[in-house]
Design goal:
By secondary structure, this protein is α+β, with helices and mostly antiparallel strands. It has two domains: 11-96, no CATH class; 101-195, OB fold (Dihydrolipoamide Acetyltransferase, E2P) (Beta Barrel), CATH 2.40.50. The protein has helices spanning 4-7, 13-47, 105-114, and strands spanning 55-59, 66-69, 74-77, 87-90, 101-104, 123-134, 139-144, 154-160, 173-184, 187-195.
Length: 196
């Protein structure tokens, strides 16, 4: 004969405690993994350190570009001999891409204002004329001045990786390859640039 407690439907108290304990452990593990992955992504994207929790799956023969796969994310650390030198983080579907977007300084100036796009993070090939250079800091400056009351004026400051700045002179036409890092007050900054 069954007692009143045995007749009640549901999960016994001891089994319910066991399920809660297992659920709590699983949730803690998920939270810890989420915090670790988030920290890894932040370190890669903001400080260019790591990745620590992703596995290097491929190294390209272009100077040392590396692909890493992590839990739900992919990192590509570009390190071309001449070309792209930045880090891209995204989903597993991001592709290795070393094709720069071509602009003249005039096209870029109009695009920034008309398209409301600062192009930050883009890998570009920019053609223009050198307005000044700084041998000490290994930088060159390109300027575009428009005829419409300065609406489209643009100054581009490029920090060069190559040491061929001595071969460049003011008023020389130059083509730069690099990543747009910032845009502020009609001044665009390109880092890790190469001059062609």
């Amino acid at each position: 004969m069954q007692t009143e407690e045995q007749k009640q439907e549901g999960i016994p108290v001891e089994e319910e405690k066991k399920i809660r304990k297992i659920s709590t452990i699983i949730m803690i593990v998920i939270i810890v993994i989420g915090i670790l992955v988030t920290t890894d992504i932040i370190l890669v994207s903001k400080k260019n350190i790591g990745p620590f929790l992703a596995i290097n799956t491929k190294t390209y023969n272009d100077g040392g570009t590396k692909e890493y796969y992590g839990l739900g994310y992919k990192v590509i650390k570009y390190n071309q001999k001449v070309g792209r030198r930045d880090t891209v983080i995204g989903s597993w579907s991001i592709k290795y891409d070393i094709t720069p977007i071509n602009y003249t300084i005039t096209d870029l100036a109009y695009s920034i204002i008309n398209d409301n796009n600062t192009h930050i993070g883009e890998f570009i090939r920019l053609t223009g004329t050198i307005s000044s250079k700084n041998n000490k800091n290994n930088t060159i400056t390109l300027k575009f001045t428009d005829n419409e009351e300065g609406k489209y004026n643009l100054t581009v400051k490029a920090s060069l990786l190559s040491n061929n700045i001595k071969d460049l002179n003011k008023d020389d036409d130059v083509t730069l390859i690099g990543i747009i890092k910032s845009y502020n007050n009609k001044t665009l900054t390109i880092e890790n640039a190469f001059a062609e």
